[in-house]
Structure formats: structure tokens, C-alpha cells
Specification:
about 230 residues; alpha/beta; Undecaprenyl pyrophosphate synthetase; six-stranded parallel sheet; 6 strands; globular; binds 3-methylbut-3-enyl trihydrogen diphosphate; binds magnesium ion
């Protein structure tokens, strides 16, 4: 058995609990979490067998949070993208956001577009941040676009109209909960699911490496026989 996870997707959960456990504001956890985004992305970029890393950063449901937390997350995202552009370029990492970006401020949309354009020539890892992303919303938007272009519905045409047309091989959720929270529902049809109690700010590339090691031992049958 020598599967390697070509597409890894991570539900980065547990930032708030991590901060609160230390008597800090939830926002402190998001700040720390953004540093882990950088380190995990850099790790994946150094492993050529990993083609794609998709990170759940803000769900279509996260708008329900207090205004102050949502605003903090928007500012943090903009700050992260501006600051990390050199990391993308040095690591030959191509940034391809997924999600409905039209709900963001013009200024944030502009920054997202700038990083996307500036890194589109990069041929290494494709890093996607899932931003205002929901698996159901993604399928609805794909269906609407198929209808608008009068395209025949098929497995291939739906897949091609999604924000991300690539199946997930390995899906990891940090933070101890065992649910998908509307993440990559279509793409994870045959993903291997790994859950860890580690809170996202404490997740490390060592732990990712251990999970990848376990993934490699799994026999994936895709409905067939081995
Ligand atoms: C995940 O951490 C980050 C986002 C959803 C933006 P949480 O903020 O959900 O942290 P917990 O799960 O409440 O600890
Ligand atoms: C999922 O985490 C969303 C992100 C990690 C961005 P949540 O904390 O929003 O999920 P629930 O509410 O526990 O399902
Ligand atoms: Mg959470």
C-alpha cells in the first residue's frame, strides 16, 4: 500500500477554546491559529506528493458569531494575505480561494484577488483558503451556473462548476469534534477522515506527518474489492 494524500483538507477548529483556556480572548486564538496556517502550508509545500491543501477558515455559518469576532476575522485574513505574499512566492505556492467571496468588503476582495493573481504562475502546492465557504452553498452556486449556461447535468458538469473540482483524499478536523460542519461535502465522498483532539493553535507538522503515515496504511477501495 503506498497511497499518498494528494489533496489534504483541514477543518481548523479549536482556536477560541485554546485562547479561553489561557484566560485570553477568543481572538487571541485566531491570531495564533493564523501562524499555524503558515507553518502547515510551508510543510505541505515542501512535500511534492501533496498537490493541494484546502483550509477551512470561515464558513457560511460563521457570520452568526458576534460582530466583533467576525470583524476581527476579516481583518486578520486581510493582514495574513498581505503579510504572507512572500511566503507564497518563496514556496512556489499558488493561492486559490474557495467560497462565495462576494459577501466580503471590496477591500478584502481586492486583497484576495491580488494574492491570487500574484501567485497564479506558481507551480508547487495549491493552497486554498475556504472563505465564506459552505459545501451546500457551493453545490447551489454550481447548479445555478449550470442552469444559467443551459448545461446538461452530469457528475462531470457539476464537479467542474464547483469552486474546487478535486476530490479530497485526507480530511482532518482538529478540536475534538466529529463533524464536517458543511466542509467539502461533495469532494469528500471518499475522503479518509481523521479527527484529533489537538486544538488548531497547537497543531504541528509533526502531528500532520503522523496522520499522513496512518493514511498511507489505509486500504481505499472506492466501493470495489481489494
Ligand atoms: C475555528 O476555531 C476558527 C473559525 C471557525 C474561524 P473556533 O473559533 O471555532 O474555535 P472553537 O471551536 O470555538 O474553540
Ligand atoms: C468549522 O468550525 C468552521 C471552520 C473551522 C472555519 P465551527 O467551529 O464553525 O463549527 P461548529 O459550529 O462547531 O460545527
Ligand atoms: Mg469551532
Amino acid at each position: 500500500m503506498n497511497n499518498h494524500p494528494s489533496h489534504i483538507a483541514i477543518i481548523m477548529d479549536g482556536n477560541g477554546r485554546w485562547a479561553q483556556a489561557q484566560g485570553k480572548n477568543r481572538t487571541y486564538g485566531h491570531e495564533k491559529g493564523s501562524e499555524v496556517v503558515r507553518s502547515i502550508t510551508t510543510y505541505c509545500a515542501k512535500h511534492p506528493e501533496i498537490d493541494r491543501l484546502t483550509l477551512y477558515a470561515f464558513s457560511t455559518e460563521n457570520w452568526k458569531r458576534p460582530k466583533m469576532e467576525v470583524e476581527f476575522l476579516m481583518k486578520l485574513l486581510q493582514k495574513y494575505l498581505k503579510k504572507e505574499l512572500p511566503t507564497y512566492l518563496e514556496g512556489n505556492i499558488c493561492f486559490q480561494p474557495v467560497g462565495d467571496l462576494t459577501s466580503f468588503s471590496d477591500s478584502l476582495q481586492k486583497t484576495i484577488e491580488e494574492v491570487k493573481t500574484a501567485t497564479q504562475h506558481c507551480t508547487g502546492l495549491i493552497q486554498s483558503l475556504a472563505l465564506n465557504y459552505g459545501g451546500r452553498d457551493e453545490v447551489v452556486r454550481a447548479a445555478a451556473s449550470l442552469q444559467a449556461s443551459n448545461t446538461i447535468i452530469s457528475l462531470e458538469s457539476i464537479t467542474a462548476h464547483l469552486d474546487c473540482a478535486t476530490d479530497v483524499d485526507l480530511l482532518i478536523r482538529t478540536g475534538g469534534d466529529h463533524r464536517l460542519s458543511n466542509f467539502m461535502l461533495w469532494q469528500s465522498a471518499y475522503a479518509e477522515l481523521f479527527f484529533t483532539n489537538t486544538l488548531w493553535p497547537e497543531f504541528t507538522s509533526d502531528e500532520l506527518e503522523k496522520i499522513i503515515h496512518k493514511f498511507k496504511k489505509v486500504e481505499r477501495r472506492f466501493g470495489g474489492l481489494h
